[in-house]
Amino acid sequence: ELPVYPTWIRSGRIFVFWLLAAATIVVGAAIGVVWLPGLLVCALALPFLYIAIVLAWTSHRLGPRGDDVQGRIHQLLIDSVGRDGRLLDVGCGSGQLLVRFAKSNPGEYVGVDYWGADWEYSRAQAERNAALEGVSGIRFLHGSASKLPLENAHFGRVVSSLTFHEVRDVQDKTRCIEEALRVLEHGGRFAFIDLFDDPKFFKSRQMVLDAVRLNGGKIDTAQSLSQVIELRFPLNLAKVLKYAVAISGSRQQQPKQ
């Protein structure tokens, strides 16, 4: 048995759009048999085809058989927080990033995820992946990024990748930043990658940076992901990673007032 690490694109969603496109073409062709202009109905499949192609292509680019952008994002997080201290991954998904951390440097690792029913991975799968990879020292906890089930200042490192914007139990997504920094010890390192430039989720990047500073964070870098990793089509689209930003730094001794 091999570990399973899906990309961030749900394969079920891709299948739905392929199915809608195919069904529309079949209906149009059936109408066209008895009424030739009915073939125009097939044109309605174009939006579904476009979305299906973009989603499938995005998944390919993210995965190891494509540009391995998901793996490169993980490596960016690893490089940003170093090798020392307990580590928390907020939104750990299938556990892939934690396994990479544990393989490179044994230690204490914790992953928190809500594992909603519409995602293709679960806590059981994450635990199974870690077991199959032969790594130890990883715990997986169920919880929301807006209210982490963890004590204050417990971790030397905290990372999160494309999770905060997915949190649905709070309107203000910067609450997740507050929580991530709450559990980070003084002097600890953090690295967050999310759609911080997307106004649908965050009012502005400046608001995000202010939230980091107000909660005791000292920012070392804040760059669009495209400045760090090449994002080829369709990853550079607004619906994909165009608005992704990488922020890293450390927690100061005292939060700014």
Summarize the structure.
The protein is of the alpha/beta class and 257 residues long. The protein has helices at residues 11-34, 45-62, 69-81, 96-104, 123-133, 174-182, 205-214, 225-228, and strands at 87-90, 109-113, 138-142, 155-161, 184-194, 217-224, 245-251.
Radius of gyration: 21 Å
- What is the residue-mean pLDDT, rounded to a whole number? 95
Helix and strand run: HHHEHEHEEHEHEHE
Extended strand count = 7
Structural class: alpha/beta
Low-pLDDT ranges: none
Report, as a whole number of angstroms, the end-to-end distance.
52 Å
Spatial strand order of the main sheet: 3-2-1-4-5-7-6
Envelope shape: elongated
Number of helices: 8
Q: Per DSSP, what share of the residues sits in E-state strands of 2 or more residues? A: 15-25%
The major sheet is characterized as:
7 strands, mixed
- Name the helicity range: 25-40%
Please characterize this protein's 3D structure.
- With 257 residues, the protein is of the alpha/beta class.
- Helix content is 38%, strand content 18%.
- It contains eight helices and seven strands, in the order H-H-H-E-H-E-H-E-E-H-E-H-E-H-E.
- The chain has helices spanning 11-34, 45-62, 69-81, 96-104, 123-133, 174-182, 205-214, 225-228; strands at 87-90, 109-113, 138-142, 155-161, 184-194, 217-224, 245-251.
- A seven-stranded mixed β-sheet has the order 3-2-1-4-5-7-6, sandwiched between helices.
- Helix 6 links the parallel strand 4 (155-161) and strand 5.
- Helix 1 runs antiparallel to helix 2 (45-62) and helix 6 (174-182) packs parallel to helix 7 (205-214).
- The protein is elongated, with a radius of gyration of 21 Å.
- The relative contact order is 0.13.
- The model has no long low-confidence stretch (mean pLDDT 95).
